[in-house]
Write a structure and sequence with these properties.
Length: 196
């Protein structure tokens, strides 16, 4: 069963008060992916809400998950879900916000450091390896001297919100491409300069 299954995790903080924040863009992208594959979320014993679907009829099986924990405690639920579905880290894709990328940019990588992202750091620690795919969704750096921790916990600006649907769509396209054609193909497409 597990050989065609992917665990796709959208990072963010729980509850409606955080839902529109930059830090929750991973969960926003996951919601867009769930919408595309007509999957509904339900509670899971791994302290997460989970939706299961096929990427396409007869295609790879997706387990879409949002940890119910706060961002910096994402690792526990992710580790439990990998165990529950009998998957290893090579079948894990994590969607998360990335301060070091300009807004409206998607980049992909597997392994390496966490770049100061506490959710990614906690997952790597909990599952014992940094070797999982990250779909890094650029939110840009805070303006002026604004603290990064404050910046990520603020809603997107009006101008950003206009572009946000296309950014989320890009993140989902990139995730689907990783699953269907592999990381290298997705990097080749999404790391190339593009016209908007």
């Amino acid at each position: 069963m597990a050989d065609d299954t992917w665990l796709v995790v959208g990072l963010g903080n729980p509850g409606p008060g955080y839902a529109g924040h930059r830090h929750n863009v991973g969960q926003m992208a996951l919601a867009e992916l769930a919408h595309r594959v007509s999957a509904g979320f339900k509670s899971h014993k791994a302290n997460a809400t989970v939706a299961e679907a096929r990427l396409s009829p007869g295609g790879p099986r997706l387990v879409l998950a949002k940890p119910n924990s706060f961002m910096n405690l994402s690792g526990g639920p992710v580790a439990q879900l990998l165990r529950f579905y009998d998957l290893d880290a090579s079948r894990l894709i994590v969607l998360h916000d990335e301060l070091d990328l300009p807004f409206d940019t998607v980049r992909l990588k597997s392994g390496g450091g966490h770049g100061g992202h506490n959710g990614v750091r906690d997952i790597a620690a909990a599952i014992g390896t940094p070797d999982f795919v990250r779909v890094r969704i650029g939110i840009g750096r805070p303006p002026g001297r604004q603290d990064a921790a404050d910046f990520v916990l603020k809603p997107f600006s009006g101008a950003e919100r206009e572009v946000l649907p296309s950014l989320l769509s890009d993140a989902v396209d990139a995730t689907e491409l990783v699953i269907t054609e592999g990381l290298l193909a997705a990097q080749t497409k999404f790391h190339a300069p593009r016209e908007r």
